[in-house]
Design brief:
Elements (H helix, E strand, L loop, with lengths): L14 H5 L45 H14 L1 H4 L34 H10 L17 H12 L4 H9 L5
Helix pairs in contact: 2-5, 4-5
Length: 174
């Protein structure tokens, strides 16, 4: 049975939390978790994937390999300059910069992105952090929903199963 999820923009952006301030661990190192579906175009939708196959115990993820493949391209083009090619963030991301802002955090499961539901991650990318006093630009005029969800899938594919499961338990799919 395949369930389709509808994602809406939440009323409150939590980008400030993405830029710093949340607890940073559920257990934390990165991993390369991918799922295993393909398609013949660049359009992806947010539907649950088949269980992933990897050396670690498999965890069913919401995204497919198509999401991750497109997401890597999107992430490398639009996100990696600040968040690192493997979503590792910047060193000392918890330390404020001279201007009072925090540097870009890791998104690979070693920081706090897993504390935020998919809808908030999407809103943070769409609207950016400037309205909240951060420095992340908005990507609403650069990325469509498929590309945004794909970028999220790419960095979530770096999350270990225990991190992903903790995210799901926190109602991550809302």
């Amino acid at each position: 049975m395949t369930r389709q999820y509808t994602f809406t923009t939440p009323a409150i952006l939590l980008l400030a939390a993405l830029a710093g301030g949340c607890s940073d661990r559920a257990g934390g190192q990165d991993s390369d978790q991918d799922s295993n579906q393909t398609s013949n175009n660049n359009s992806v939708t947010a539907t649950p994937a088949s269980p992933v196959t990897a050396a670690a115990p498999a965890t069913r993820r919401w995204y497919t390999q198509d999401h991750v493949t497109l997401g890597k391209t999107v992430f490398l083009e639009h996100c990696a300059r600040c968040h690192g090619e493997n979503a590792e963030g910047t060193p000392d991301w918890k330390q404020t910069l001279p201007d009072g802002n925090y540097p870009p955090p890791p998104l690979n499961g070693t920081a706090h992105a897993w504390h935020h539901p998919l809808s908030v991650l999407r809103s943070s990318i769409l609207e950016g952090g400037i309205p909240l006093g951060g420095t992340m630009p908005a990507f609403a005029d650069k990325l469509n929903d498929d590309e945004i969800y794909a970028a999220i899938a790419y960095f979530q594919s770096k999350w270990r199963d225990d991190i992903y499961n903790a995210w799901e338990k926190r109602d991550g799919l809302r």
